[in-house]
Write a structure and sequence with these properties.
The chain is mainly α. Helices cover 78% and strands 0% of the residues.
Length: 77
Amino acid sequence: MKKVLWVLFCSILSALGYGMYHKTYIDFPTGERIIGFSVLAGTFLYLPLFLYHRWKGKRLQDYTLTEENLKKMRGEK
């Protein structure tokens, strides 16, 4: 999963760079489309995969403020 995320990140970043180059030197509307599709891919493909990879195996209750966690932080029993 780590390698898939790395390859996807590099491809999205390179597409963004190519879109910037294409927008500046070749054709403005096509460059804008390439930039837009790379932003969409980063948002709807990369971000959910990255969040799933980072949160796998963790409990949400450990990171929320409940009465039990507040007592632990205060040092009460």
